[in-house]
């Protein structure tokens, strides 16, 4: 079975069991501070499990793009070393939301694997939760009993919490699980050693393929387990492993999921280095093949979901994965030019049918990757030059940990590569020193971010939260739950209300601020954010009576300005597509009360004329005063029929909100003006690059754009006044500049003439003292001319020792010049002499042996200094 058929068979099977087939959620998570990337199929259903949101239908099945590179589930270090872990992988899952439980989950998993996929039954082993005293949980006898219907008891094995109690993270939904493992060894090996002995022992051919989780608890911050409102089923089957099994391969990387990528990588290596390196020869190059083809999928899918590599957060994780891949290509294949961007195109083609978001954006993805690769390859070159420097200037066998850390920290140079290069040169890293520095850095960053979140304190049972902030800015509210969050030793609070007028940060728009008030006590709301479908209000204090009824008031001025900028963002998006073309897609957005920032895909700088056109279109639509047409809760297909465009990497519910102004139609949860005239005037302030193929526009509206215009006009008025209010300002300024240029030229010529005359006078004044041609004079010349004159004198007169004093810009200056031969023969040093003489002008200076200058504040001292100069010759 090829991999597409394997996937489709899974869907068809569960469709037959009345499951809805649902889409994968984006791999990059945007509204959950506890998780950067989807690391399990259940992430998108977390709210349903917790009871914060109803399920659309009780049964679902899907394939989910997952990335396990951080937090509780992190496989990064295993990837490539073994043959069955990945950073990005697909997880096939079936779901029961408070519907069927263990019996059906077990029976159907068995039926699909053995009847449909026809896997030999005697290769399968089952693991079950053995219970846990600390958590007060018994052995999962129920699961054992259901399994016994299908599997002999000696193939059902008990394991502890680590293997058979699945938790999403430190807190959150969890439950006991049953895993299905498969033994892929040949008959002789299986004869010699019972597969049961190898389950959960990291054997490459005895691996887990499917995990059935029986979700029934919520892990609290104090480690306690609470019952969930309902019992659910969450299963996850590694798609790439299933393909390995069904295609009778020894490794995930030998399946048709990876083969095209490996083939293309082999070609890339050959093109760049002339060498044909085969995959499957074992050893380091095999690991490199696996690392690269694994990582390129992760990077490609992440960028498709809107995560551009960057220096912080999720973007940094993606950048590190990308660099790891480049590093393996560089070290093991000698790839010194970009190659991942080429592989990304293969990913796009291969996944066209399942995840079209990659194919649709493939040029952008390739451009972003290529630029990142180039940047990191330059880093590698610089780092290697730096290591060579270190080796040249240092004979020690063990290289200081501090230097290695600097390479890593400041230059971004990978430590293992440093180690490799040092080894090749018979040197090594001071591991302990390096680790010390690394630890210190980690401690520093941990101290900077330590945050402790308590469990929710529930005040009201029925806490279905309602957002009323589209229609009003005030409401009477009750606190349904709150929790304390300690950040850097300061207590802060997060409150959830039954209804709220506060808009939670989302869709680029900043969260509302304001206050709540009861019994004369006001508590200010610092910001509002969303987490797992809850609207959370951030405060510095807890009201003295949390159970009171509060008047909640949104800061109206800030909301008004923000709303203007949100509507402006829609009009800008529309105008950009009209002026630049349909390839323009939103890649990021910030809607702030002071301005808006909009990132979009476009491959070159937006020219001045294009920007002017965009601005003009937006302002026409502002003046057209289009009324808001808002549709709340329309089905997705209806919205699309209205012309709304869904963004890649955004998660939408089945019912969406549509915002229409004139021909601009968008899916949007933000706040908007009643009619576009409210924006006043729209002005673009900057247009810059963010990454390859991504541009950024910042713009302002309303009071901000008026203030901006007034500033420009004031500036113009000031300039006019300075120019004595000419009829034509531009011409007046041009005349002035031209005059200025002419004058400068004349001035320069005059200075030259003057210097020449003065030099000739000076030549006459040179006298012999002790066999030296001596000169000490005060001249009225600027500093540049003095320098010019002394060097001319030096060229003209042998055995010269000259000191010139001058006044320039109210300062006294001294210049000393000495013929080269005198420097040797008479041991004269201009620098030392000028230092000594500078005392007279109350200043300081220095220079070389034959030429030096000094400056000081005492103009009267010039004469004395000149008199003193002769003393150096006696
Ligand atoms: N949540 C479980 C896992 O990720 C099953 O889907 O393994």
Polypeptide structure, described:
With 874 residues, this protein is of the alpha+beta class. 39% of the residues lie in helices and 26% in strands. The strands form eight sheets. Strands 1, 2, 5, 6, 7, 8, 9, 10 and 11 form a nine-stranded mixed sheet that branches. Helix 22 links the parallel strand 33 and strand 34. Helix 14 crosses helix 16 and helix 17 packs across helix 18. The model has no long low-confidence stretch (mean pLDDT 93). It binds serine. Serine binds next to strand 10 and strand 11.
> What is the beta-strand fraction?
25-35%
What structural category arises from helix and sheet content? alpha+beta
Q: How would you state the average pLDDT, rounded? A: 93
What distance separates the N and C termini?
104 Å
Largest sheet: 9 strands, mixed
Rg is 37 Å
Helix content: 25-40%
Shape: globular
Low-confidence stretches: none
Q: What small molecules does this complex bind?
A: serine
Number of DSSP strand runs: 37
- How many helices in DSSP terms? 25
Summarize the structure.
The chain is an alpha+beta fold and 874 residues long. The chain is 39% helix and 26% strand. It contains 25 helices and 37 strands.
């Amino acid at each position: 079975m090829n991999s597409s058929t394997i996937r489709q068979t899974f869907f068809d099977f569960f469709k037959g069991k009345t499951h809805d087939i649902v889409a994968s959620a984006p791999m990059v998570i945007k509204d959950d501070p506890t998780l950067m990337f989807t690391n399990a199929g259940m992430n998108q259903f977390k709210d349903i499990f917790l009871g914060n949101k109803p399920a659309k239908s009780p049964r679902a099945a899907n394939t989910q793009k997952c990335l396990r590179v951080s937090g509780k589930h992190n496989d990064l270090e295993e990837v490539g070393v073994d043959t069955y872990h990945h950073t990005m992988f697909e997880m096939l899952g079936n779901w029961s939301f408070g519907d069927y439980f263990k019996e059906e989950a077990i029976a159907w998993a068995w039926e699909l694997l053995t009847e449909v996929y026809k896997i030999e039954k005697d290769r399968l082993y089952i693991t079950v939760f053995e219970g846990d005293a600390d958590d007060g949980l018994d052995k999962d006898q129920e699961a054992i009993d259901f399994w016994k219907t299908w599997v002999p008891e000696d193939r059902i094995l008990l394991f502890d919490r680590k293997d058979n109690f699945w938790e999403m993270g430190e807190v959150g939904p969890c439950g006991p699980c049953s895993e299905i493992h498969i033994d892929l060894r040949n008959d002789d090996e299986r004869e010699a050693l019972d597969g049961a002995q190898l389950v959960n022992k990291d054997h490459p051919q005895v691996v887990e393929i499917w995990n059935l989780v029986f979700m029934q608890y919520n892990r609290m911050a104090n480690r306690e387990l609470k019952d969930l409102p309902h019992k659910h089923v969450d299963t996850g089957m590694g798609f790439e492993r299933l393909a390995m099994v069904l295609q009778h391969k020894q490794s995930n990387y030998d399946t048709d999921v990876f083969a095209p990528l490996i083939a293309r990588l082999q070609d890339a290596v050959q093109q760049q280095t002339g060498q044909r390196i085969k995959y499957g020869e074992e050893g380091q190059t095999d690991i490199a093949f696996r690392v690269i083809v694994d990582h390129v999928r992760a990077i490609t899918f992440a960028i498709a979901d809107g995560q551009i590599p960057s220096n912080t957060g999720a973007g940094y994780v993606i950048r590190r994965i990308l660099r790891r891949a480049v590093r393996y290509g560089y070290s093991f294949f000698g790839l010194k030019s970009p190659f991942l961007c080429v592989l990304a195109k293969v990913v796009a083609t291969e996944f066209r049918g399942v995840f079209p978001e990659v194919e649709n954006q493939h040029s952008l993805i390739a451009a972003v990757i290529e630029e990142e690769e180039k940047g990191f390859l330059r880093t590698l070159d610089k780092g290697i030059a730096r290591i060579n420097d270190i080796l040249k200037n240092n004979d020690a066998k063990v290289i200081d940990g501090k230097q290695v850390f600097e390479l890593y920290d400041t230059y971004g140079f990978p430590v293992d590569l440093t180690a490799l290069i040092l080894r090749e040169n018979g040197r090594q890293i001071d591991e302990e020193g390096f680790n010390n520095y690394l630890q210190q850095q980690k401690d520093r960053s941990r101290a900077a971010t330590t945050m402790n979140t308590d469990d929710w304190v529930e005040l009201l049972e029925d806490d279905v939260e309602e957002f009323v902030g589209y229609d009003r800015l005030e409401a009477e509210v009750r606190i349904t739950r709150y929790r304390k969050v300690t950040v850097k030793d300061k207590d802060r609070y997060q409150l959830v209300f039954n209804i709220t007028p506060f808009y939670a940060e989302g869709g680029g728009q900043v969260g509302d601020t304001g206050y709540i008030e009861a019994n004369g006590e006001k508590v200010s709301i610092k910001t509002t954010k969303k987490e797992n479908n809850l609207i959370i209000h951030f405060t510095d204090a807890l009201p003295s009576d949390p159970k009171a009824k509060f008047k909640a008031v949104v800061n109206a001025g800030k909301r008004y300005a923000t709303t203007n900028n949100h509507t402006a963002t829609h009009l800008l998006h529309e105008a950009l597509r009209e002026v630049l073309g349909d390839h323009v897609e939103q890649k990021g957005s910030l809607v702030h009360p002071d301005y808006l920032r909009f990132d979009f895909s476009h491959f070159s700088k937006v020219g001045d004329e294009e920007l002017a056109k965009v601005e003009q279109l937006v302002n026409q639509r502002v003046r057209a005063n289009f009324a808001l047409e808002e549709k709340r809760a329309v089905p997705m297909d209806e919205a699309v029929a209205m012309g709304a465009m869904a963004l890649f990497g955004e998660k939408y519910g089945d019912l969406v909100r549509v915002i229409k102004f004139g021909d601009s139609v968008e899916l949007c949860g933000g706040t908007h003006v009643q009619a576009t005239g409210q924006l006043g005037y729209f002005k673009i302030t900057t247009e810059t690059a963010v990454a390859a193929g991504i541009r950024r526009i910042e713009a302002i509206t309303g009071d901000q754009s008026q203030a901006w215009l007034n500033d420009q006009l004031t500036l113009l008025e000031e300039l006019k006044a300075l120019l004595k209010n000419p009829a034509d300002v531009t011409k007046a300024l041009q005349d002035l500049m031209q005059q200025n240029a002419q004058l400068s030229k004349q001035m320069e010529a005059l200075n030259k003439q003057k210097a020449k005359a003065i030099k000739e006078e000076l030549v006459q004044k040179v006298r012999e003292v002790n066999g030296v041609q001596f000169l000490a004079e005060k001249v009225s010349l600027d500093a540049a001319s003095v320098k010019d004159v002394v060097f001319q004198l030096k060229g003209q007169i042998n055995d010269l020792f000259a000191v010139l004093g001058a006044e320039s810009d109210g300062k006294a200056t001294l210049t000393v010049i000495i013929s080269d031969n005198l420097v040797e023969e008479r041991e004269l040093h201009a620098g030392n002499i000028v230092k000594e003489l500078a005392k007279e002008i109350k200043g300081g200076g220095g220079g070389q042996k034959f030429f030096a200058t000094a400056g000081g504040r005492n103009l009267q001292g010039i004469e004395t200094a000149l008199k003193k100069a002769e003393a150096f010759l006696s």
